[in-house]
Amino acid sequence: MTPPTEESRKRTPTDYIFGKVLGEGSFSTVYLAKDVHTGKEFAIKVLEKSHIIREKKTEYVMREKEVLRILGNSCPYFVRLFWTFQDRDRLYFVLSYAKNGDILTQIDNRKTFTIHCARYYAAELLLGIEFLHDKGIIHRDLKPENLLFDENWHLLITDLGSAKILSSEKPEADKSKTRRNSFVGTAQFVSPEMLTDSQSSFESDLWAFGCILFQMVCGEMPFRGGSEYLVFQKILKLEYAFPEGFDECAKDLVESLLVIEPGKRLGAADERRYSSIRQHEFFSGRNFDDLGPPPKLGDECDGLPESEIPDYLEPGLDEEKASRLQFDLLCPGEMSVRKKSLPNRKITDLSPEEICERLEAQRKGNAYHSFVEDNLILKQGFVDKKKGFFAKRRMFLLTLGPHLYYVDPVTMTLKGEIPWSNDLKTEAKNFKTFFVHTPNRKYYLEDPDGYALEWCKVIDEVKSHYFPD
Description:
The chain has 469 residues and is of the alpha+beta class. Helices cover 30% and strands 20% of the residues.
């Protein structure tokens, strides 16, 4: 009997040594991993089944898998899906490893791209969009974070869970359902039609293309605001401005793409897809059949540090290993810093003397003391409190009592308090997102610094102190 080939053999987590965490999504974590058989490195997207089911994201996961299957390895400008497999608790997508990070990181490091670099990567992005649209697929979440660099500094488009496959769309049977689900993507890059309950279209990706070009050239997003609501209002009013010195050819192209009416965007009416964009003056002299080697982004190309997955790591992924790798992401090389307190000491293990001493210092030096009714603050920090599409940043204050207050840090007003009871429960979705469940409400919270697990831990400790089993 012929043994199975490497391509056809069924895969399991033990076929890979899992290294550092490369990134996190709402219900997934991406790890750098090495194939134990070949030594090749991959990015493995690990999705928790319980989170997918609880948050009703099965459709997103299956859509991303289907889009990646359709794309295959036919276009060099997309991450490739090599294998998928599962165990009892998780799904695994084995993807191309983009070892040089993403465009956003390079923009943050360099502030702007040179026009030469912006032109080259805009051309690669346009070729990727053309290919995607030729397959009848709309990305719907194009943004610099989703544009990666491979080992040779070519573009790789990723994160296709929000994509729309036109050929597989079902007839609209429920308009209200369509309306509720019409907004996808990221606030600063979403097109106006996505905000007015209209259907997304290929032109929605052209709008995002214009936003990305704007950011590559000047380092800033065209639509910015203090909240998602304010960003949306600016998008709907087409309220943005070019900074001084913005390249004139790039400016003309951006203006041709950032048009409220989708059908009037440059490229929308082309018989040969996006030929008018290719022929724009910004791409003058550019041969789209052979773009040539990537330009240097600067004197030094700041890629990610060499990965070097340690040899002593065992293959496979379990809860303990996943927790350790995610901790390393938050505090690389700083294990001792996070162990200042005794390992088994709970946040409520305070003597009366300690409480009095800390409370006296809090009265004198904590600007938020006036909101906590003279209770000792055990933990405080900024948390984004989400409701619908919008998130508002609040200062959360966990105190003895127990109380969990939240304050508007801008107006310095108390906005509310999460009610305590024996039925209160916490749930960490990932290292940023967590929920607090009460009998009458579910609070959707996000720690911008990635300490969701710590919030859950201390809230649970306070609960067990006041509501022992």
